[in-house]
Amino acid sequence: MKNTAPPLPEIGFVRLPTVLRVYPISRSSWWAGVKAGKYPPGHKLSERVTAWRVEDIRALLQDTHKATSVAPSRDQAQPNLAAMGQTPTAANS
Q: Closest Cα to residue 66, out of 74, 51, 56, 76?
């Protein structure tokens, strides 16, 4: 199956649906992770709008990818490398 998720923008902010396309966990798990400090905090753009810096999401994906390369776990989300503009290779798949 071909991944059709658009890559993350180079800079700027992304909202939660975009974050969850590249870091596939549930909304409730994401918010619990933000509260626990496991995931980066969002920035309130208005009373009902929260967004995340693309740089923070890229860093999270890179850290997760490094952690899963060393010690894979079924509990950890696998980063969507195609959405980061990278293609999986034998070394990182």
A: 76
